[in-house]
Amino acid sequence: xxxxxxxxxxxxxxxxxxxxxxxxxxxxxxxxxxxxxxxxxxxxxxxxxxxxxxxxxxxxxxxxxxxxxxxxxxxxxxxxxxxxxxxxxxxxxxxxxxxxxxxxxxxxxxxxxxxxxxxxxxxxxxxxxxxxxxxxxxxxxxxxxxxxxxxxxxxxxxxxxx
Length: 162
Fold this sequence. Notes:
Blueprint: H1 10-26, H2 35-58, H3 61-87, H4 95-120, H5 132-161
Helix pairs in contact: 1-2, 1-4, 2-3, 3-4
C-alpha cells in the first residue's frame, strides 16, 4: 500500500500515541520536581513523530532515510530515559506505565528500522524525483509485466489443450 500522507503511516500513529502517553505520564505529580527530565523526555517523544512527518514530506528517499534514523534515535532516547525512571525510587509506583511505554518506544524503533531497511534496498529515489518521463517508464514496465503474465496464461492454455 502506498501512503499519500504521513498521517496514514502506522509508525507515525504509533509515535503520536507514544508521545501522548509520555505526556500523560509526565503530567503526574512525581515529575513536579524533575522539570528537566520531564522536558527532555517530552521533547524526545515528540521528536519521533515529527521526524517521521518531516522525512515523509521532504520527497526524497535520502532525506526520508536520514530523518527516520533521527526518529529512531529519539525513540531510543525515550527508552533510555524511561530506563532511568525505572531506577529512580520516587518513580517506583509508575513502573508498569514506564515499562509499557518502553515497549511502545521499542515498537516504534523496530518499525523505523524495517522501513529504513526497505528504503535502502529500493531503487526508488522519492517523489521529488518523479516526473512525466519516470511515470511513463514505470507505466511501460507495468504494461510489459501484465502482457507477459497474459502471454504466459495463453501459452499455458495452448499447451494444456495439445
